[in-house]
Amino acid sequence: MSFAMGLIGCGVMGRRHVIGMKQLKAAGKLNFDLVAVCDIMPANLLKMADHAEELLGTRPQQFADFDSMLKATKLDGIIVTTSPEMHTEVAEKAFDAGIHVMVEKPITLTVSEGVRLVEAGKKANRKLAVAENYRRDPINRLGKALIESGAVGTPFLATQESNGGGEFVIITPWRHRKDRGGIVIDMGVHYTDILEFYLGPIDTVAGMNAIVDKQRTDHHGTKHEADAEDLSVGVMRFQNGAIANWLLNVAGRGEGSFSRMIYGTSGSLAIPGDRTGKPLRLVQRRDGKDVTVEQEDLLKLVPDFHLDDVTAALFKGDRLTTYDMTWADIDANLLGIEQSDFVDAAINNREPEVTGEQGLRSLALVFGLLESELLKRMVTLDEILEGKDSPYQAEIERGMKA
Ligand SMILES: NC(=O)c1ccc[n+]([C@@H]2O[C@H](COP(=O)([O-])OP(=O)(O)OC[C@H]3O[C@@H](n4cnc5c(N)ncnc54)[C@H](O)[C@@H]3O)[C@@H](O)[C@H]2O)c1
Fold it and tell me: What is the pLDDT of residue 1?
């Protein structure tokens, strides 16, 4: 019997997820059926039903709210692609109904909600996956294999820096509101996830942050109030002793930039932007000299490296050092990979790659940067997860109660 999937939230990301399903189907790797979609906005719901019918060949049932969807369907799993403030409510209802959940990042609006959601999943004995796509990029898979093989020796420093965005609305106005999951959280969780993906658990962070633009302009020229930070600068300490240097500048004018580097005792690895297909650049220190490792020699350092079946099918190769595809196809492939992992985890009763706990760590680390500044000290991940002294999130929670 096939795995019945529902999708809640038919906005930008909901529609992108359906393109991911189309890619899985085309590669013969679709392990579920999208049977129902839900959105509180009728126009988005209709657009989604048309989109899904066109891409997947069948028209899913449509619901204007999740309660009616639950009453009228028998779902095995759902993908939650609403804006973050609705993730917890929808996912908790699903767990109560015995349904597995994959929620888009950030897992929830606040850490305390995330702690509650992880508990709810455990109590219901259902899987909770977080849709974190960047780590699924074949280039990041190879990068991690190289780091693990010792290609740069013992890593002692990671840098994660990006500059761009200007004074404009990034995708949707809600991303600039603190009580809806501001842009530093929205983008930052990708980067805390990738840092831990490469170098393991982080335990301490310190940050300084700012709101550069208190108003942002959308592509129609309309101005929107912005009360969420758009600049975050910080440092983090991994459990293994390595340090991360963090810069997320979403107010960047002038020259845009992206840089992710890992430095170790015997070299450096430059990791390209996610979803670009560009190659890694490995420079090794050999006999006191820095030598750039040629593309064709990278794979010799990791003879056992292979992409998983689904990734290899979608990206057409299981030992890739680079690939050339449109951004839309790359994006859809990565979403397809995480969907397939979620369903396989539910069917085979194993943990998905990005569990609720991992998604919660990513969120807590970014909040740690914001809490640290208000507390005027370094904070540990444990204390943020425990909810001690979280003045930044306390303000969001007070707003939710008001
Ligand atoms: N992984 C990525 O690369 C990536 C990229 C973009 C967005 N996202 C994430 O996806 C999620 C959605 O972002 P988006 O850009 O699609 O937002 P969006 O505003 O375009 O879409 C959200 C949709 O959810 C609907 N919605 C809100 N509350 C609902 C409810 N209670 N029941 C049903 N529908 C409801 C809205 O009407 C809207 O159509 C966010 O968590 C965001 O961070 C992830």
Answer: 63
